[in-house]
Amino acid sequence: MTTGDELLLLAIRPGRRRIRMRAEDRLRFVLRASELADLGLAGRITIGPRRIEVMDSQRVEDRRLNNVLRSLGATAPPPSLKDWLRRTPRSLTTEYLSRLEDQKAVRVRRWRDPSGRIRHDILSVDLSRRQALLARLDSVVRSGSVISTADRDLTLAALVQAAGLARAAYPALRGITDRRRLAALAATDRLAPATSGAAPAADAELAAALTTGADVLTRQLVSELSDLYADFTTGGHSLGHDLDPGSWSEGGTPGTGHHGGGHGDGGHGSW
Fold this sequence. Notes:
two-stranded antiparallel ribbon, 48% helix, mainly alpha
């Protein structure tokens, strides 16, 4: 699984009566950011203050990431991080849902509503695979030291926080301590957690890990996502005009539609 696959699987939260997809309004942007994270951790790209630069165009194993890398290399002039994220296609979440289907991590039913829009019912989710992801997240959030924590797991944790998926991973009152730790881990200069003063020393150590090495990339992504979500939440002018409204996507086949709101009855989610 890529980091994007993992984020979407964590966003799909089983419940007693239905399966819900959390943070739908944020997901496509953090999925786009996760692709850059994976390519950065693989040494293929760097993100500078003005542009995303391809450092190594050699193929990567995952076909989608390889197509994203090729698209980045072919874009002239090279895009900035802001432009790349704000051109996120509306179809991206649907495309990643299809990837999870191919990996047999979810089972989905598609149907058209009266307006002709394609909807997706999530009928089932691989709970063992999702639980394994939560265990990896726990290894970051509950670790007493960052030394033994993999870069990719740190990146996954920071993007979970940025996407607003903390409650999907750590629900209800029993998850409040882990949500606070996750917020401390993903903290940036512009997005400091309100609970940082009460956070244990281990949490501060985890947050400090995002200032060096590969975690600089994660900090860049979280900071830009914070700006993007702030514009989206407040109805900012720039977001509405910068996002591509089509269903195209670098790195994948264009989707057949974009998701809508609402949930189906019974034991599945609809979007």
